[in-house]
């Protein structure tokens, strides 16, 4: 994705040379297309607000950035009632606002390196409550950490029931998305040579992951049976090696299945099942939570998920109050038994 293509998609970049230059550097560094797209979206929205208010983005201050934040938080949402991640039909979620601010902050880092500014009006949120400031700074927007939503057993069964009416490709994709805790792009980018049916594993290539971290993950026997059925079906569409999941529509027949097509499939399942919160990422959250429920070590879950940090894994695991109560009861039962043994001398008598 070259700079000229970006300027065609977002014309405002053509009016701000420094912004286009900054984005061009990320393109030349080989950042993933989706990363470039997210950066371009964030910086162009900011430039448009500056242009509307007659503000030079190069010399803008924190108050000008705050106007941009207010714009993001209060604008009418074009998706309206179809938005399932927000609490209302207006504004963007806290996480999305944080995402929009990242390219703005990086743009000002670039201007500082170029000697065009002395400070960054966005800041980095290094302030720690309860401590003296000591040169640290509070983030421009408070970062809210919400538990990810996962379906309960009844909701999950309704989704599976809806999926039974789908073709073999969609059923396999849903099974793999859960079984291997795959992100949407990782799932849709799978190739035939990523599979190892003999060992029931698949390779998630570094270039398709969020953090460029390659991994090999297993899938279950049941998913393996679906895989063999799908490969036989795929051969009726195309015998060529390459993308695993192919479109079966007339317009894009035998072309790689797009991210957006898979999103539409999952959205349709969610609505049919009466579980509108269900999304392409829900299966990943559910899988990692189930692994934690089964007693997997945190480091093992992080490796399976492809996280560099266990902190990222912790944000994905959603143990319910009932799960935690059971773990507490189990732990307390063990401690209680040990204390009783110590009090009654049972352990010492058994040793003699």
From TrEMBL:
CDD domains: DNA_BRE_C (cd00397). Residues 146-329 form the Tyr recombinase domain. Keywords: DNA-binding. InterPro entries: CB (IPR044068), Integrase_catalytic (IPR002104), Tyrosine_recombinase_XerCD (IPR050090). Residues 17-112 form the Core-binding (CB) domain. This is Tyrosine-type recombinase/integrase.
């Amino acid at each position: 994705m070259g700079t000229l293509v970006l300027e065609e998609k977002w014309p405002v970049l053509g009016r701000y040379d420094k912004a286009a230059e900054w984005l061009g550097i990320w393109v030349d560094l080989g950042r993933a297309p989706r990363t470039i797209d997210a950066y371009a979206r964030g910086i162009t929205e900011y430039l448009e607000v500056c242009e509307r208010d007659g503000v030079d983005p190069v010399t803008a201050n924190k108050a000008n950035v705050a106007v941009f934040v207010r714009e993001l938080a209060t604008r009418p949402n074009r998706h309206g009632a179809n938005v399932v991640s927000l609490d209302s039909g207006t504004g963007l979620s806290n996480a999305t606002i944080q995402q929009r601010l990242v390219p703005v902050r990086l743009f000002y880092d670039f201007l500082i390196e170029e000697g065009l500014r002395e400070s960054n009006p966005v800041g980095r949120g290094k302030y720690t409550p309860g401590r003296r400031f000591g040169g640290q700074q509070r983030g421009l927007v408070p970062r809210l950490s919400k538990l990810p939503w996962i379906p309960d057993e009844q909701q999950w069964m309704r989704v599976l029931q809806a999926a039974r009416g789908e073709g073999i490709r969609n059923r396999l994709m849903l099974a793999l998305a859960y079984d291997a805790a795959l992100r949407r792009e990782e799932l849709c980018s799978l190739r035939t040579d990523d599979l190892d049916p003999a060992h029931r594993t698949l390779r998630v290539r570094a270039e398709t992951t969020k953090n460029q971290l390659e991994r090999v993950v297993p899938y279950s026997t049941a998913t393996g049976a679906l895989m063999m059925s799908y490969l036989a079906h795929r051969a009726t569409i195309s015998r060529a090696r390459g993308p695993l999941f192919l479109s079966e529509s007339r317009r894009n027949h035998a072309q790689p299945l797009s991210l957006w097509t898979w999103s539409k499939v999952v959205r349709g399942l969610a609505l049919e099942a009466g579980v509108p919160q269900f999304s392409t990422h829900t299966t990943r959250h559910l899988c990692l939570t189930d692994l934690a429920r089964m007693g997997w070590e945190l480091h093992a879950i992080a490796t399976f998920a492809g996280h560099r940090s266990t902190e990222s894994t912790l944000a994905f695991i959603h143990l319910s109050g009932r799960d935690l109560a059971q773990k507490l009861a189990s732990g307390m039962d063990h401690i209680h038994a040990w204390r009783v043994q110590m009090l009654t001398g049972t352990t010492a008598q058994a040793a003699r």
